[in-house]
Amino acid sequence: MILTFTHSKRNLIADLTKPLDISISVHRDHSVSSFGIAGAIYKDYVAGDLIGNKALGGPCNLETITFTPHGNSTHTECLGHIADEAYFVNDCINDRFYLATL
User: Is 57 a residue whose pLDDT tops 80?
Assistant: First the structure.
C-alpha cells in the first residue's frame, strides 16, 4: 500500500508494505544492556505440579521472562522516564502517524 501525503508543503510517498524495523528484541543468548542492567532472565514456569518444560516432563513449554524494557530492548522514550508523575506514552499520543527522519 502506497501512502501519499503532504507535509510542510512537500508531497511525500511511503510504501507501507516495506517497513523499516529499528527495534532491538530481547534475546536469550545476548541482550542489549544500558546502565549495566543485567540481561533478561528466562525461567521455566512452575506452579505446584505444573512444570513449564517438556524436557522435564511438563505438558508444554512455558517460560517467565523478566527484563527491564528501558535497559534490555527497544523502548519508547517518554516524559515518564524523568517526570515525578506517572506518564504513559499511549496517553500522550493523539495521532497515529508522525514524520520522523532516521
Answer: yes
The position carrying cell 530481547 is 26
Residues with Cβ within 8 Å of 65's Cβ and at least 6 positions away in sequence, in order, are 26, 40, 41, 42
Neighbour tally for 2: CB within 10 Å: 8
- 52's CB contacts (< 8 A; 6+ apart) are 44, 45, 46, 58, 60, 61, 62, 63
Inside any domain, residue 4: no
Q: Name the domain count of the chain.
A: 1
Residue 3 lies in a domain: no
- Predicted pLDDT of residue 76: 64
Residues, the chain, total? Answer: 102
